[in-house]
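Why do we care about 3D structure at all? Because function follows from shape, and shape follows, mostly, from sequence. That is the central idea of this module. The next example makes it concrete: a single protein chain, its amino acid sequence, and then its structure expressed as tokens.
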Amino acid sequence: MEVKLKQIIVILLIVFVSCGNMSAFDYIMELHGKREIIKSYPLSKDKRYLNFILEGTFTDNLGNYGIWDSSNTLTLQNKNVVNLQGYGKSTYQNNEFIYSKSFRNKQEQQAGVGKTEIVNASKSLLALIGMSCTYAVNFYKVNAYFIQKCKITEKQKEVLSNISKKKE
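And the structure:
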């Protein structure tokens, strides 16, 4: 367990140090979810393909919360990530939503750092399209623990801050 804690600390340090540009607001989301493997195929003696979904909940540092899910494809070689790509949807407490694409590569399967970009959104969240974030993830059995950090503009902060002010 101590090794896992050290991994999480190292990953979080990487996320926070690698995000640069201190003039923008740091938007932080914490996501928790469950992983379900849909398909898995051996590609060779040491390579494997996986298709899986993640579903869970999130909170952010602006008082928002909601649910999220994603569909992902993963290629592993000797339990290391060669390539991971996924698309997901996050639905906020006021039923507004964003769609994102995520990727990471060349890392351990159970923990890693990757990138997410917002590719589509509901009408009131359109200003978030193009927002790029760095995430750190750690898995324990079927449970996923994410922290995501994004540098956002004042306009994006205003849009995200208004979510918690609207009635559900």
